[in-house]
Amino acid sequence: MSTITMTEHEREQFLADVHVGVIAAEQDDRAPLAVPIWYDYSPGGDVVVWTNRGTVKERLIRANGRFSLCAQQEAPPYRYVSVEGAATFQDAVNPDDVLPLVRRYLPETEARAFISESFNDKAVLIRMRPERWYTVDYGKLES
């Protein structure tokens, strides 16, 4: 019997590939907040996202102490990896701290220009070491 669940290596590699993630954080008396976000990840490491102090997502994650992130392949064969875990915050952030994350999505010159225009003194990096993994690779059905 074939399984569509990714192996540890497959899921870590997929999450390390460039995808726009969807970050989700619990809200009281409402559905979870779920918004797209750029992220950084290296196999065996932390998921890292950049936002600003005071945003809805930052306040919710800080209050709850955890978040989840889902990355997906939007063309066949469909795949996704969803991770969840406890959050830690790096409040003292400088532009060089966010450069590796932005470079995943933009070429060097554009990444530096984006940071120059977007970075401010409210910048915060939020890290999460994945504790739970949920994965699907529908390409395995073809095997």
SSE order and pairing:
Layout: H1 8-16, E1 21-25, E2 33-37, E3 39-40, E4 47-52, H2 56-64, E5 66-73, E6 79-90, H3 95-103, H4 108-118, E7 123-128, E8 132-137
Antiparallel strand pairs: 1-2, 1-5, 3-4, 4-7, 5-6, 6-7, 6-8
Helix pairs in contact: 3-4
Overview of this structure, please?
- The protein is of the alpha+beta class and 143 residues long.
- The protein has a single domain, classed as Electron Transport, Fmn-binding Protein, Chain A (Pnp Oxidase, Chain A), CATH 2.30.110.
- It has four helices and eight strands.
- The chain has helices at residues 8-16, 56-64, 95-103, 108-118; strands spanning 21-25, 33-37, 39-40, 47-52, 66-73, 79-90, 123-128, 132-137.
- Strands 1, 2, 3, 4, 5, 6, 7 and 8 form an eight-stranded antiparallel β-sheet that branches.
- A hairpin with a 5-residue loop joins strand 5 and strand 6 (79-90).
- Helix 3 (95-103) crosses helix 4 (108-118).
- The radius of gyration is 16 Å and the shape is globular.
- The protein starts with 7 loop residues before the first helix and ends in a 6-residue tail after the last strand.
- Residues 9-136 form the Pyridoxamine 5'-phosphate oxidase N-terminal domain.
- Keywords: Oxidoreductase.
CATH superfamily: Electron Transport, Fmn-binding Protein, Chain A
Distance between the amino and carboxyl termini: 11 Å
Helix proportion of residues, in percent? 25-40%
> What is the CATH domain class?
Mainly Beta
Residue windows where pLDDT falls under 50 for at least 5 positions: none
> In CATH terms, what is the architecture?
Roll
The strand count comes to 8
Domain module count: 1
Report the structural category: alpha+beta
Q: How would you sum up the global shape?
A: globular
Q: What's the tally of helices?
A: 4
What is the mean pLDDT?
Answer: 97
Strand content: 25-35%
The main β sheet shows up as: 8 strands, antiparallel
- How many whole angstroms does the radius of gyration measure? 16 Å
CATH topology: Pnp Oxidase, Chain A
Q: What's the SSE pattern?
A: HEEEEHEEHHEE
